[in-house]
Records
---
Amino acid sequence: MQVLLHHALTNLTKNDELYRRLLPKKQKTAYLIPNQMSDSGNKKLKIFNDPVYGFIRIPDDSIMELIETPIFQRLRMIKQLGLSHLVYPGALHTRFQHAMGSMYLMQQAIEVLRSKGHDISSDEALAATQAILLHDIGHGPFSHALENALVYDMNHEDLTLMFIEYLTEKMNFPLQPALEIFRNGHPKKFLHQLVSGQLDMDRLDYLHRDSFFTGVSEGVISWDRIIKMLNISGDKLVIDEKGIYSIEKFIIARRLMYWQVYLHKTVIAAENTLQNIMKRAKMLALSGKELFATPPFRHFLYNKFNKEDFICNSDLLEEFSLLDDYDIFSAIKTWTRNTDTILAYLCQSVVNRKLPRIKLQKNPFSQEEIEAVKDRVIKKYSIDNHSDADYFVNHGTTSNHAYDPGVANIMILSRDGSLSDLAEASDQLNINALSRPVEKYFISYPKELGVII
């Protein structure tokens, strides 16, 4: 029976609903239909089962070839939300899943815009799909948590551009149109807005996906409704007037997700500890101390590379492409027994989830309060060097900007063809409030000190 079922499934071409009903549940998550033909008829296209959207079809042979490159497969080993799983245990999804989901939403958006009479050629659709698929390929280990910690003066967008150029020049992928879209150099500006803007496919996917995996229901958005309301006016991406309430909910959900997930105070404490681990480890490594590290990690641990180094030496990009969460965390586990007591303490804090106490407030902490906490740390841990107290006491600011009018505004298209900014068109007073950034101040310190602020 199983053999006959398998034979029937491998000969399905378009009837995805029949496939969904017939396939045994235990096989669904990994099963690929191997004989769906591409438009060119050259290779067999595949589908995969995404827990958020269901079955997603790989739209083109070249897309599958990109997905199969080691550079892209590396995203399977990089968590989407850094150390957020220490607060939300389900938040273990990866950049790979996010990239694939964003690709799916791009396909849906292009279909909607074409159905409304807008001209998007097959080549333009392919380039936009490639651009969104690769938009996060430059992320390093633990995503944003270690941005600029391993490489100086470079963010993940700089590295993404370099990776796309590498795939184009060294691996002969025809990605120049995708690169133009990514850089906002393509004549059809709305294609860039679909990749990078205040209502792009990146944001739609990560809000919906992160809400799904964290279980934070306040982040649920009507992504399908929003995509169906997309339109183009004057070469800009806009929203049909009847979709305004879905956009209002999207903005509110984004704010709630930032305070409840991305900027959750325990997540801030954990990621600051991770950053201090890297800061301490690099200081020790550059001073000549021998530390355990995998070969790719060692290359960046014992050197200070910046953007200029990457431009001058393409081998660095290849080395960076070998780095993922596992390199960093295997080192952190090993360092829990390091002879350097500060490094060992910090690593134990992350591995055993013994995280610092953290306080957030609207007003800045005074320098006297900060120094008082440092003095307690110096006394508690018998620290000789006053600057070493900075590894235990962190302070700074964090901000939440749910909607930024003036930067790729979300424009509402009225039935009479006129355009207005979301903040003006909305009848929700809180949209205007959400257009202003909210800043909070934090201080964290070891829980062993008790509540001292």
---
Amino acid sequence: MKNFKKWAVFILALAGMFIFVKPAFANQFNFSVKAILPDNQASKASYFDLLMNPNQTQTLTVELSNSTDKSVTVEQGLASATTNLNGVVEYSPNSIKPDSSLKYNMKDYVKLDEEIVLEPKSTKTVKVTVKMPSSAFKGYMAGGLTYKEKQSSKKNNRHKRNQYPK
């Protein structure tokens, strides 16, 4: 009788795990982003890490894919790299005013479209133009491209989970 009770409790607990489980979805984004890396890529990173000369202009390619059955409008953003209060580098757009020591602001050297419309079940390549400053400098110019789904004014503030820093 003791063994029967143990097995009954075990089976009920196991059944409860399957009855009360909520489904989980791995992808909450309505689009995906992929950097198409050029020949002058400096490292094997999956993001742009370029070696460029002074005054050089280069067109970068980013591939956006929409696997849903609805159109998706994607907002493309750009930001110079910053550090947060913990000293961690961040590449997302923010309201931090550039420091007076910032000699080359990324926004002055990169041109991009602000919005891209992705039709249902489609892939689109987006061009980003980079023009290096006219004089050579030591160090790096670091920043990030950000892609987020444009939300209509009717929707709530869920847009923070629908963005890709790049």
